[in-house]
Specification:
Blueprint lengths: L9 H10 L2 H11 L57 H12 L13 H14 L9 H8 L15 E5 L4 E6 L2 E7 L7 E6 L6 E6 L5 E4 L2 E2 L3 E4 L2 E10 L2 E6 L12 E4 H4 L2 H4 L5 E5 L6 E6 L70
Parallel strand pairs: 1-12, 10-11
Antiparallel strand pairs: 1-2, 2-3, 4-5, 5-13, 6-12, 7-9, 8-9, 9-10
């Protein structure tokens, strides 16, 4: 397991172990502070004037101030096994506050060791050359106590700029030549991938390597919220090299894993666009050039077939009238001779109040 500190951390780290107290480490760090020489390309502070009539040159607006390092702070002892995801309490809060003071965004300072805290600790581990576990052990405790920013990769560049270190997989934002943010990042994986272009009505199929090229660029445009692309969604992307952007993503591995963009944690991407503006420079170090493997035209998409012709509506036939089959009533025939009227018999006298019944079969009709 790789648990060694980067070489530039060894003097203060060794002093801390040998002295057994952070006071010794503080003295060592003060001894290492830039004096006449402040590193490659950096001008140290002017020497004290000698007792002569020589006049020192007046500082101009182009004089670059020295990089301010954070003070040494003794961190509280760790519980057995250290600190990691799920831990909570005042010790966690103390480390959150220290990381926030170091410009390593740990998320809310609430005493809870969550995903944002994991990303912050991984940032420290990347810079110090420790295993990228996201947990705080004794090596991380010492590094956080005596944290030092790495030397700028573009020391003579603009005061406000972004530096992306592909080798360390970190992003550092400078404001006025001082560190505004240090965060873990994930750049191009170097793997082969393909996509259709342009987004609307694509005409070509392009395959290339997922590299993040080195060079100096500038931020060109910002898209608020989720920006869909053929390769996935980007959160609050700030583009600086064609389709390559600094953007938030749900997963920021400790190793290169993107298609060429620089992924940063989502909680950092929430406010990062407010700290930069279009036109600010972006410096990428340690990247690999873009490499297109193939670009082939897409077969034209045939137009969809026309819809089938619409048949004329069929009108229903007119309703038909059914002739009535009711047979009119007929008069029963009489028994008289043909052509002669039927004979009638005079009615027999009846007694008052009594009627005589008619003889059946004689053609009498009811009234």
């Amino acid at each position: 397991m790789r648990r060694r500190l980067a070489s530039w951390w060894l003097p203060p780290f060794a002093a801390l172990i040998a002295g057994g107290t952070v006071v010794v480490l503080s003295a060592v760090l003060r001894a290492e502070e830039p004096t006449a020489s402040a590193g490659p390309g950096r001008a140290g502070p002017p020497a004290a004037p000698a007792a002569t009539t020589t006049t020192l040159p007046v500082a101009t607006s182009t004089t670059r101030p020295a990089l301010r390092q954070p003070p040494v702070v003794e961190m509280p002892p760790l519980p057995p096994g250290g600190l990691g995801p799920g831990a909570s309490g005042e010790v966690v809060r103390a480390y959150q506050q220290r990381l926030a003071d170091l410009r390593v965004d740990p998320g809310p300072i609430d005493g809870r060791y969550g995903g944002a805290m994991v990303y912050a600790v991984q940032t420290v581990q990347k810079i110090a050359g420790l295993d990228r576990t996201g947990r705080i052990g004794e090596p991380e405790r010492f590094v956080i106590s005596a944290f030092r920013y790495p030397e700028p990769l573009a020391p003579d560049a603009e005061a406000n700029r972004t530096e992306i270190d592909v080798d360390r997989q970190v992003l550092i934002l400078y404001e006025g030549h001082q560190v505004r943010l240090v965060t873990t990042a994930s750049t191009g994986s170097g793997e082969r991938y393909c996509f259709n272009t342009p987004r609307v009505n694509p005409t070509r199929r392009v395959c290339e390597l997922a590299n993040t090229p080195s060079g100096r660029f500038t931020y060109t445009r910002f898209v608020r919220g989720w920006d869909p692309s053929p390769l996935g969604r980007l959160y609050n992307p700030i583009y600086f090299n064609g389709g390559i952007a600094v953007h938030g993503y749900e997963s920021v591995p400790t190793v290169p894993a993107s298609h060429g963009c620089t992924r940063i944690p989502m909680h950092v991407a929430e406010w990062f666009p407010t700290a930069v503006r279009v036109g600010d420079p972006v410096y990428v170090f340690g990247g690999r050039p873009a490499q297109i493997l193939s670009s082939t035209p897409l077969a034209p998409i045939p137009p969809p077939p026309p819809p089938p012709p619409t048949a004329a509506p069929v009108e229903p036939p007119p309703p038909t009238t059914t002739p009535s089959t009711t047979t009119p009533p007929t008069t029963p025939p009489t028994t008289g001779a043909p052509g002669t009227p039927p004979a009638t018999s005079p009615a027999a006298p009846t007694a008052p109040g009594r009627g005589a019944p008619a003889a059946p079969g004689r053609g009498v009709t009811s009234r």
